[in-house]
Design a protein that fits this description.
The chain is α+β, with helices and mostly antiparallel strands. The chain has seven helices and eleven strands.
């Protein structure tokens, strides 16, 4: 029986929020420069434009891009460029870039139309969409830059890998930024893969740690843990019973009554003494 998925790691939401704030500040700075560049260029070409119009043009773009930022970040976390197969990365993020550009162009056109209507002016809301190839080229660069910077941000804030230490009984040291958690291995009943993380199950409250299950298996070799499934390690001392199935798979029943599915592929290591 699979345990319920754990929540996102503590602090991840705050770190993403900080990233969006930094992105917004940078986007506003770039937009401000663009506004005055447009005003100056139009004046030089004999077609002056009031300051508020380029402010609306650039501001609407910044608003929509900022609103779309969480969706792009979620896609990056799900399909990491440095971790997933390149074909999956290219396909997922090309689709993401197209969707981003379509929404960006359509939504900023609607925002501009609304602002112009409020001041008694007129703006064709679909005019940016009419020049989509031009807009998509710009949006593709913006999307790629955002993804690259966010991946670097995630790498910079990546917790230090857990280490075994501090004596007897053995403990697992998990670092999350400046914080350290020490988990006694004899308290961990099983460890389960959860996307790019693993869940350390002790009692009823799992601890989420960013590491691959294969990494944890190597790190805990000789510490009493055995692999029973491609996504699950269990502590031998916590096993009360192993119940076989006709298919060759099995169910591991723990001392606390929880049941874990085991795969026949990992049956031999489990039954070895």
């Amino acid at each position: 029986m699979r345990a319920a998925p754990a929540a996102a790691p503590a602090g991840a939401g705050r770190r993403d929020g900080l990233f969006i704030m930094i992105f917004l500040a940078a986007a506003c700075a770039v937009a401000t420069v663009d506004v005055f560049s447009v005003v100056d260029d139009r004046a030089r070409n004999g077609h002056p434009v009031p300051l508020w119009e380029p402010m609306v043009w650039e501001g609407s773009s910044v608003v929509v891009m900022t609103a779309l930022a969480p969706a792009i970040m979620a896609l990056v976390r799900r399909v990491r460029p440095l971790e997933a197969p390149w074909t999956r990365v290219m396909g997922a993020h090309l689709a993401g870039a197209v969707a981003f550009s379509l929404i960006h162009v359509t939504a900023m056109g609607a925002l501009r139309w609304a602002v112009y209507a409020l001041v008694g002016g007129h703006y064709a809301p679909l005019s940016p969409l009419g020049d989509f190839p031009y807009e998509f080229r710009k949006d593709l660069l913006s999307y790629a830059a955002f993804v690259i910077i966010y991946v670097a941000w995630l790498h910079l804030l990546k917790p230090t890998p857990a280490t075994i230490g501090r004596g007897d009984p053995a403990e697992l040291e998990i670092r999350d930024g400046a914080r350290r958690h020490f988990v006694r291995l004899d308290e961990v009943a099983f460890i389960e893969a959860a996307g790019n993380y693993v869940e350390l199950h002790r009692g009823q409250t799992p601890i989420l740690h960013r590491a691959a299950l294969s990494q944890m298996e190597r790190q805990l070799r000789g510490q009493g843990f055995v692999r029973i499934h491609r996504s699950r390690l269990v502590q031998r001392a916590r096993i009360a019973q192993v119940e076989s199935k006709p298919s060759g798979d099995y169910v591991v029943r723990l001392l606390d009554g929880r049941e874990l599915a085991g795969s026949r592929r990992y049956r031999r290591p489990l039954l070895e003494s």
